[in-house]
Structures are given as structure tokens and as C-alpha cells.
Amino acid sequence: MIISLDMSSTVPIYVQLRNQIVTGIGRGELKAGETLPSVRQMAQDAGVNSMTVNKTYQILKTEGFIEIDRRKGATVCPVQHAEERFREKLEAELELLSAEASLKGMDKKEFLRICEEMFQTMHPAGSEA
């Protein structure tokens, strides 16, 4: 998986990194049980501070996307069923995206078509959508 960060973006680097790793897992580019690069190696590869990568890995761990073991490092977790906290987050983010799409003149059919296309590009290991 190739990480591409936009250093001029208003989105913090750790968020960009987190989002790209989650997308990589979702697309099946990173499989359950696969080891991520060490914090130091990821920082070097991405051209960022190791504290930024450490923060990203801690967030991913908290969210249940990776496990961290001192001996093995960070590994991708198996696919999980959505919990209530995630559903609430999803609803809030979709509400905002729906509002923005509507305000930009997009109709419901087009919005749902785009959502369907994006969802179909995700192929996490062991899941069937």
C-alpha cells in the first residue's frame, strides 16, 4: 500500500494517514493479520515525525482496526461487526455529507449511486456485503 500525504491540506497528517490505512484495509490492500511497518519505518516512508505515526497507530488501535504488540508490532485486526458507537458516527458523517450534497445541487439518486459505488470498492478479508 502506498501512502500519499498532502502536506498543504487543512486535514491533519495523522488523520490523512489514519484514513488511508482504513481505506487500505477496506479495499483489501491490507489483510487481517498483516503487519504494518514499525512506527519508525512508517514515519521514514511517509516523511513525517514518528510521533505523528504513533498517534495514528494509537487511534487505529482505539478504533479496533489494528492491534499493537511490543514483539510483533502493529497488525491489522479481523473485520468486526459495527457497534452502536460506530453507527452513531456514521450517521453524523452521512448527515453532513448529505447536507453538503444537497446544498451543492446533487439529487438523492446521484448521492446514493456514489455511496453504492464507494461501498462496492471495499473488500475486507472475510466479509460479504
UniProtKB/TrEMBL annotation:
CDD domains membership? WHTH_GntR (cd07377)
Transcription regulation among keywords: yes
Q: Does the keyword DNA-binding apply?
A: yes
Keywords of this entry: DNA-binding, Transcription, Transcription regulation
Instruction: Provide the HTH gntR-type domain boundaries.
Output: 11-79
Q: What's the name of the protein?
A: GntR family transcriptional regulator
Q: What is the lineage of its organism?
A: Bacteria, Bacillati, Bacillota, Clostridia, Eubacteriales
